[in-house]
Amino acid sequence: MRKKIYTFFLILCTITFLFCAWKLGQYLFAYHQADQEYQEIRKVRNAGNDRKEIDFDGLRKMNSDTIGWIYMEGTEIDYPIVISHDNNEYLSRTFQGTSNRSGAIFMDKNCDKEFASDNSVIYGHHMRDGSMFADLLKFREQSFINEENDVILYTPERTIPLKVIASYAAKGSTKIPIMFSDEGEKEDYIAEILKKSDVSAGVSEADRKKIGKLYTFITCSYEEEDNRTFVYAVESDDIS
Predict the structure, then answer these.
(1) Angle at Cα 64 formed by Cα 59 and Cα 67, nearest 5°?
(2) Do 189 and 180 touch, CB atoms closer than 8 A?
(3) Whose C-alpha in 27, 29, 70, 148 is 20 to 30 A from the C-alpha of 114?
């Protein structure tokens, strides 16, 4: 009887091990597949051998949902941005349409695709291998912000240099406004996010009043269940 029980548990452990190995293999393959795809896409971006020369015609031939490109200094964040009529589409679909848990970097469907909204909201996954928007969490470290708080947003029409002004973790249900009813509402919101921020970017009272548009970048956090990391940036010309 003991031998049968031992054999049963040995078989059970073997099956469990093989299943876990298979699942791990799936994760690693998905990471590799997504990484290879985005490496190829970056070749299209660098068609002119200059980071400032984004080949948007080439990108749009690959995906007509293309609206921009995001690059964040000091991180691995260097991806095209897309928009869809459905915020769920690019959660599990890469830029080129491959079914993959890495997804794509995408703008909220309710935002203006030409970045004309009061607050352009952009999402990306926090992948365990450090890809996609995982490095957003660096902007919650004061030491990192002191060295790197520059973000460059490329669109077909212009290049928009940004500065990160605030970052923090909050629940995924946190309401993020896209349009403000007036300047007063916008100033109150900016004061709120600066107060919540884990870091200080040295935004003065005068700077707050000069801020035009906001750019919000969101990814998952794992400090608590259903947490998100929110990183807020503004156009560099709006602050000193």
Answers:
(1) 70
(2) yes
(3) 148
20 among known catalytic residues: no
Active site includes 111?
Answer: no
**Radius of gyration of the CA atoms of the chain, in A:** 21
- pLDDT < 70 regions, the chain: 1-35, 44-52, 240
13, 20, 85, 220: the catalytic one is 220
Please state, in angstroms and rounded to a whole number, the distance separating the CA atoms of residues 90 and 84.
8
And the tokens for 98? 């491959």
DSSP letter for 20, please.
H
Which phi and psi angles does 183 have, rounded to 5°?
A: -65, -35
What gap in Å lies between CA 153 and CA 161, rounded to an integer? 6
Alpha helices in 138-182 (DSSP H): 142-147
Burial of 60 (C-beta count, 10 Å sphere; 0-12/13-18/19+): middle
> What are the two backbone dihedrals, phi and then psi, of residue 164, each rounded to the nearest 5 degrees?
-75, 130
